[in-house]
Every structure is written in C-alpha cells, then in structure tokens.
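S.,

Sequence below, as promised.
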Amino acid sequence: MGAGPAWYSCFLPDIVRTFLQGWPETRVRVEAGVISTLIPALAAGEYDIVCASLDFPDIAGIAKEAMVNLRHVVIGSQTHPMAGRGRVEATDIAGSPWVVLANDHVGTGRIWSYFAAQGCAPPPIAIETVSPTFMYEMVARGPYIAHIPEVMLAQAARHGATTLSVPGTFWETPAGIVYRQSGNRLPAQTRFIEAIRDAMHRRPGSAQ
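The prediction came back faster than expected:
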C-alpha cells in the first residue's frame, strides 16, 4: 500500500499493529509518498490501497472514501522571529524560504493559493525532500518554514518546530482510503480496508 505522511506517521502504525495481531500470517508493505506519486501508482496497479489526502479529481475506476479531515498548519523554528506571536500576517512570512515534500505538487500549490489569496507574491521554495524528519530538522534550524497536517505537530515539536499563527485556514482537506473498484480483491486486502474503516471511524474528527 501507499501512504501519505499523516497516515504512515500517525494513523497506520496502530492500525497495522492491531490488524497483524488478528492476521499474523499477513505481510503488510507500506510505502511513503504524496498524492502526485501515490494516485498514478495506484491506477497503474502498483498499490492495492492508498491512504492519503483526497484532494484530487475523480478518476474512473478509482474509489475514494473520506475518513478524516486534515487541517494543515504552518511551522517554523522556536527561534523564528514570528514564533510566539499571537497573529502572523502573510506579509510577515512571505519572504521566508520554504521546505516542501518532493513531488508534492498539490501541497506546494496550496502555498501559492494561500499567499495569492492574501495578496502576496509566491514565497521561495528552498528545499524539497522526501523525508518529514529532514523537513523538521531544517525548519528547527531556521530560517525555513513549512506546512504539515496538524496531527503531525507533536512529531514536529520533538525536533524543535512550532506553529506560526497565520490568519485563516491554510489548507483543510478530507483524507481517507483510495482503491481500484474491482471484484478481484484478495481477502487480506478486504480485511485490511475494513480494519482501516473501523479504526478511523472511531477517531475524534472522523469524516463520518
């Protein structure tokens, strides 16, 4: 299966552990990615299931199930000039260099959209990485900033990053599971989809 950052770092570890306790003969393979890489790979048959943001157009033969709403926040170092401010205007951080996930065209597009809506020019993208850990470390060292799902804040904080209180909603999107609509699904795949549904529907803030 393929998974976006909030899924492989926050949601899936407990789901996979619980699933394997009931089905220990099953082997689960999880590969990290972003919408721009995960969805084409799913459509091409490289994945059985994808867990990610659902912020992409409908595709024939591909099913989407919303399970949770992900609210993205902007993070900077604890020593960033705007850290601890009650309100940070877009103009205050418009010149700050950004760290983004590599190939995350949707997430990077949301940066452009946010600043355009605030009447600012697009900020500079300084670093692309496939690793959220590297992103956190660069942000913590400053002067870089980034955006992440709010559910990942505890991890970012352990690396020395903190939220910057920008006005409005930076990005909020439904997230869930994506799979090919096929009658040939293996029993293990069906069981795992059911395990994801059960776990996510019991979470606070689920998109039921």
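The first strand starts at residue 2 and ends at 3.

Coffee later?
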